[in-house]
């Protein structure tokens, strides 16, 4: 199977670098100057992985990722940006990106992270699509969560965090494992990002259920309790 990469960057040299990197490895690689050009291409075909810059002519990359994630929930998106501060990374990941790479980047690291995205895609095709524990139902294919029959709107990271904890129900999931699985390959940001997402997730579940599903294991990680 030939995997495809779409890459958006206003710098022609970076677009050329993507092609020189991925095409010799057997990937199909198409590049775009703007988000608007990308949107036209996505209407015809979806790639396996999208590489998205943040600072672009016209619509910025963060806004574009939000729109793309609404329409294409299973598409793997990696933001590649010169904005490398923690706030920018959190904004990028919360917009719906699966991973965030800072410029300048190493080619080997970029290829490794793309391979991680593709590996996760292949794994998700074989995993169970619906999880039902306690009052919570999570449908992986439809990217849908309900609590006592009520639909709960979640960001992509909140959805993936809940799915990970539900699949490990009853077991403690270490913080490092959660960050790597949900935030991507070797996440280097501060771990309070995880705490903020757990707090938000708990608040959303509590809107329709009085049960406490996510238990904090101090100094270790988190555990999902089914109450069954």
Question: Which secondary structure elements does this structure contain, and how are they paired or packed?
Answer:
Elements lengths: L3 E5 L3 H11 L5 E5 L2 H8 L6 E4 L8 H11 L4 E6 L4 H9 L4 E4 L4 H18 L5 E4 L2 E4 L4 E4 L2 E2 L4 H12 L4 E3 H9 L8 H15 L7 E4 L3 E4 L4
Parallel strand pairs: 1-2, 1-3, 3-4, 4-5
Antiparallel strand pairs: 6-7, 7-8, 8-9, 10-12, 11-12
Helix pairs in contact: 6-7, 6-8
Notes on the protein architecture:
- With 228 residues, this protein is of the alpha/beta class.
- It has helices at 12-22, 35-42, 61-71, 86-94, 107-124, 156-167, 175-183, 192-206, and strands at 4-8, 28-32, 49-52, 76-81, 99-102, 130-133, 136-139, 144-147, 150-151, 172-174, 214-217, 221-224.
- A 5-stranded parallel sheet has the order 2-1-3-4-5, with helices on both faces. It has a 4-stranded antiparallel sheet with strand order 6-7-8-9, with helices on one face.
- Helix 6 (156-167) crosses helix 8 (192-206).
Strand content: 15-25%
Average residue pLDDT: 88
In the predicted model, the low-confidence regions spanning at least 5 consecutive residues are none
The helical percent reads: 40-55%
């Amino acid at each position: 199977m030939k995997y495809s990469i779409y890459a958006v960057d206003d710098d022609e040299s970076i677009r050329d670098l993507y092609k020189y990197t991925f095409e010799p490895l057997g990937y199909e690689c198409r590049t775009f100057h703007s988000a608007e050009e990308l949107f036209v291409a996505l209407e015809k075909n979806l790639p396996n992985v999208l590489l998205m810059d943040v600072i672009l002519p016209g619509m910025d990359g963060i806004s574009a990722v939000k729109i793309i994630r609404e329409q294409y929930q299973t598409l793997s998106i990696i933001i590649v940006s010169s904005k490398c501060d923690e706030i920018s990374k959190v904004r990028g990941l919360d917009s719906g990106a699966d991973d965030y790479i800072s410029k300048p980047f190493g080619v080997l690291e970029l290829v490794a992270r793309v391979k991680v995205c593709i590996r996760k895609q292949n794994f998700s095709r074989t995993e169970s699509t619906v999880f039902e524990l306690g009052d919570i139902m999570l449908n992986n294919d439809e990217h849908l969560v309900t609590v006592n029959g009520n639909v709960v709107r979640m960001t992509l990271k909140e959805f993936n965090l809940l799915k990970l904890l539900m699949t490990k129900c009853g077991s403690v999931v270490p913080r490092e494992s959660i960050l790597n699985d949900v935030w991507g390959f070797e996440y280097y940001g501060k771990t309070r990002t995880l705490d903020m997402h757990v707090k938000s997730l708990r608040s959303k579940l509590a809107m329709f259920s009085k049960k406490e599903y996510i238990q904090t294991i101090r100094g270790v990680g988190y555990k999902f309790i089914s109450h069954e």
